[in-house]
Amino acid sequence: MSRARADEEEYWHSSKFRAFTFDDEDDELSQLKESKRAVNSLRDIVDDDDDDLEKVSWSGEPVGRRNRLPSLPSLSDAFSDTGVKNYAPELRRPRAEYKDYSNDWSPRDTVRRMQRGKVCSLERFRSLQDKMVLLDEAVAGHDGNVITAVLIFLKRTLRREVLFRELEVRQVALCHLIHFLKETGEQKLLLDLLRFLDRTEEVALSQYREHLNIQDVEKKREFLKGCIGLPFSAEDISHIQDHYTLLERQIIIETNDRHLAMAGQSEIFRKYPRKASILNMPLVTTLFYSCFYHYTEAEGTFSSPTNLKKTFKIPDKQYVLTALAARAKLRAWEDVDALLTTKNWLGYTKKKAPIGFHRVVEILQRNNAPVQVLQEYVRLVEDVETRLNLATKYKCHDVVIDTYRDLKDRIQLMAYKCKVERGSAEEEKINSLLSNMQIRWKN
Amino acid sequence: MASTARRDAPEPPDFGILKRLARDQLIYLLEQLPGRKDLFIEPDLMSPLDRIANVSVLKQHEVDKLYRVENRPAPSTSDQLCFLVRPRVRTMRYIADIVNADKMSGRSRKYKIIFSPQKFYACEMVLEEEGVFGDVTCDEWSFYLLPLDEDIISMELPEFFRDYFLEGDHRWINSVARALQLLNSLYGPFSRVYGIGRCAKMSYELWRDLEEESENDGQGRKPEIGNIFLMDRDMDYVTALCSQVVYEGLVDDTFRIKCGSVDFGPEVTSSDKSIKVLLNAQDKIFSQIRNEHFSSVFGFLSQKSRNLQAQYDRRQGMDIKQMKNFVSQELKGLKQEHRLLSLHIGACESIMKKKTKQDFQEMIKVEHALLEGFDIRESTSFIEEHIDRQVSPIESLRLMCLLSITENGLIPKDYRSLKTQYLQSYGPEHLLTFHNLKRIGLLTEQAAGETLTAVESRVSKLVTDRAAGKITDAFNSLAKKSNFRAISKKLSLIPRVDGEYNLKMPPDMAYVFSGAYTPLSCKIVEQVLERRGWQGLEEVVRLLNGNEFAMADGAPEDGAGGDAQRVVVAVFLGGCTFSEIAALRFLGKERGCRFIFLTTAITSSARMMEAMAEAKA
């Protein structure tokens, strides 16, 4: 495929994880020292502690200093004596928690308890007003986990229109519900909600998004066809249309080319076997492919570059850039020449590059174009300094010599003499120029 | 902060305790499922786990086999399965599938889920719906803080950025508040708290709430950290979007530092294998170049190589005894230094090679032009060409975002044409990426016709409490208007330098961007610490959309309070880049104070852009 494309593909999509290695950089001794230091630094904290404080073990049960669980490492022990006890997991529900089911916590206390990870029954919030007070408290508490928990309860106990109506004026809670529905994949409810909110563009995008999960290309194409009628913005509709058309084309091209490649009749496929399928590739990659394998086809065929250019209104610049890269890769220098040649109305030909000749040179050079080819385009680089740089870099001696001559720079020309081979035609050319009395050197 | 006499910055507190706490708790949780068991680990948790425990520790606590949580059925034959996971819906479904498959085949096993750093109600709901609630036991591994280095602590929650800033989900605020509480209880009490941003404010409030009800008031303890500064990532996207040019930032941009370590591939190691290297203050070579501008790094490395050579050369002319001493005492150190030196030289070469290929020089020029606000047309065509040539999709996106933020949105014509070309070059499905970028405010279109301020003032009249919700996206995108140009002017973010900017002996924090731009986030921190609050910064605050706060709880007067008053925790909600870290380290050195970085994750432009893409379910 096109340059670096494969790399980028992987970069962009990669979700692979590296092999699983644990490496232990610390050696035992330094670990020991570190522990000792840690323990010592803790002593102050531990000793300062108010002895009246209730001691809590990992299990959340109050314990005295004496009946600690024997398996606990000393460090965490030290910590359970300080304020850090909040970080101990509540592994078993403390007995105190069971009273949640009977006791009436205020909405605020309910939210606070939930923020601390405690189980709270929400069933007694039955009136709409109670429910909304609870939701507003959750939002005011800033903990998204609790907001979502309340929303799960509301979703279960309210008719959706009622819930939607209430959320319309509660933006923070609304965001949480939308995110929750996205994560749990409740697409239907999500779309209903977005429609209720009149967010038509999001409705369309959210449906379009589903195409990412469709593996089968035929199904995907059908799905995209259906997307064309969705309420996208005027601008996006054309993108969706293009997406559909592109996949449709790719399916046709892929079927044909796979067949061609298998049959082994076509020289180009034999000489340059396809590395990957063209399905689901971007348009520019498809164009590159088409310029590579189907360059000479007539505009009538779906796989021809000109057809693609026309169908997708590919700008000239983009087209030339891509075609150039493809033809240079095949070392089809005549095609490169033709691509950059235009005829005016009098029939004179002229070289023209919408991308700038320095880019042309770069592309050709990357594909190891011979000096004769390269120098023709180096010569056309407009900016003198860039031209000299490129010509020197790629050893296009003729261009360097001519440029210095045009600049009437005798000193540079003389200096360049030592860069060309002894006894070569280039050296001769320099010598003849230097001895040419008709040139008015500037130095 | 002392700005008068230059003092040495205090040493950072010892954060090793945090690792130990996490490890001990994990061990305890594993022991709650006595006997042999297989452990399934969420891929995201592997590197953090790697930093606090190793396989042998797990084995000691009867972990038999290790599996990755992934979308494949698990071949485990153990009677006890333990899952170490992030609280995610999709992971719950994976676990539920395993449990349900066992039920179908009449197999009985014990299952335990350990959530890190906390459990979400939504996860329990999924377990309930799938009919496995009660079949599994759930625990929480309160592993909030992972010290990556002596001055960097990460929450390792890269998803924080997308969850909060794009989806508007507050689920991680509780985790942040608990992390602050933990830090405060171990190294505080913090006497001064500053912050800016909506999330910063909410986190602060929730943390206060937690502190109020905990019995531990920390009185009488000698604090090691006196100040804390909380900042939302959306206060400053520009800095995060710039190409990094300090060494550590470049290494991150080029090779991706993951959880404080990096995999140097064959192109760096000049052998056929990759080497995993821990990058931190313990690496004697790295610690000296990490904060340097890339241009100074070569000189340093070659000087080091010469010194090393000289030390090796001393062997000639040694007698047996001296040689014996040399081998037993110095050789190991020299070899180690040699190994590190050659790795970093290899890394530099590889960076150079990649950057030359990418027209890095030209790209930096464009970035600087965007930051200063000139040659906008030329920059736009540069970006266009970048897209047309199918150079990196991430880089193209990054440059477009930088253009958008610095210009307060793209003009509609440019927006349309760049978007169309982007979709043609990198794939039509990025339509979704563009939508996300618009929602988060990173890549927007200027409103046609009416000037923004006119709309804004009209809208603000409409906004009463009840009506606030009714106003849709249009207002949201206005609210996120970046005002970069005005802020940059107010804070003089573009240094005026006569002659060449001295990168070797930099005069200010702007060196992290070659002297072209002072990172906004760091400048805010500097200004607020200097003023001990927001006085005099009212205009900047207004341009940043407010939500600033400053609290001083019994803060000692100047001079009193000891070293702790010169230690500042800089909290970045939504991620912090290595360039920002380098800039604040520089500031710390200048002002004799020590910055500790607490971030939800280390971030970079690439990570931010990737977070905006839509992936398959």
Automatic annotation (TrEMBL), chain A:
<dbReference type="InterPro" id="IPR040057">
    <property type="entry name" value="Spe-39"/>
</dbReference>
<dbReference type="GO" id="GO:0005769">
    <property type="term" value="C:early endosome"/>
</dbReference>
<protein>
    <recommendedName>
        <fullName>Spermatogenesis-defective protein 39 homolog</fullName>
    </recommendedName>
</protein>
<keyword id="KW-0967">Endosome</keyword>
<dbReference type="InterPro" id="IPR038132">
    <property type="entry name" value="Vps16_C_sf"/>
</dbReference>
<dbReference type="GO" id="GO:0005770">
    <property type="term" value="C:late endosome"/>
</dbReference>
<keyword id="KW-0968">Cytoplasmic vesicle</keyword>
TrEMBL record, chain B:
<dbReference type="GO" id="GO:0031902">
    <property type="term" value="C:late endosome membrane"/>
</dbReference>
<dbReference type="GO" id="GO:0006886">
    <property type="term" value="P:intracellular protein transport"/>
</dbReference>
<dbReference type="InterPro" id="IPR043155">
    <property type="entry name" value="VPS33_dom3b"/>
</dbReference>
<dbReference type="InterPro" id="IPR027482">
    <property type="entry name" value="Sec1-like_dom2"/>
</dbReference>
<dbReference type="GO" id="GO:0090330">
    <property type="term" value="P:regulation of platelet aggregation"/>
</dbReference>
<dbReference type="GO" id="GO:0032963">
    <property type="term" value="P:collagen metabolic process"/>
</dbReference>
<dbReference type="GO" id="GO:0005794">
    <property type="term" value="C:Golgi apparatus"/>
</dbReference>
<dbReference type="GO" id="GO:0043589">
    <property type="term" value="P:skin morphogenesis"/>
</dbReference>
<dbReference type="GO" id="GO:0005764">
    <property type="term" value="C:lysosome"/>
</dbReference>
<dbReference type="GO" id="GO:0033263">
    <property type="term" value="C:CORVET complex"/>
</dbReference>
<dbReference type="GO" id="GO:0031901">
    <property type="term" value="C:early endosome membrane"/>
</dbReference>
<comment type="similarity">
    <text>Belongs to the STXBP/unc-18/SEC1 family.</text>
</comment>
<dbReference type="InterPro" id="IPR001619">
    <property type="entry name" value="Sec1-like"/>
</dbReference>
<dbReference type="GO" id="GO:0061025">
    <property type="term" value="P:membrane fusion"/>
</dbReference>
<dbReference type="GO" id="GO:0007032">
    <property type="term" value="P:endosome organization"/>
</dbReference>
<dbReference type="GO" id="GO:0070889">
    <property type="term" value="P:platelet alpha granule organization"/>
</dbReference>
<dbReference type="InterPro" id="IPR043154">
    <property type="entry name" value="Sec-1-like_dom1"/>
</dbReference>
<dbReference type="GO" id="GO:0030136">
    <property type="term" value="C:clathrin-coated vesicle"/>
</dbReference>
<dbReference type="GO" id="GO:0030897">
    <property type="term" value="C:HOPS complex"/>
</dbReference>
<dbReference type="GO" id="GO:0005765">
    <property type="term" value="C:lysosomal membrane"/>
</dbReference>
<keyword id="KW-0653">Protein transport</keyword>
<dbReference type="GO" id="GO:0044877">
    <property type="term" value="F:protein-containing complex binding"/>
</dbReference>
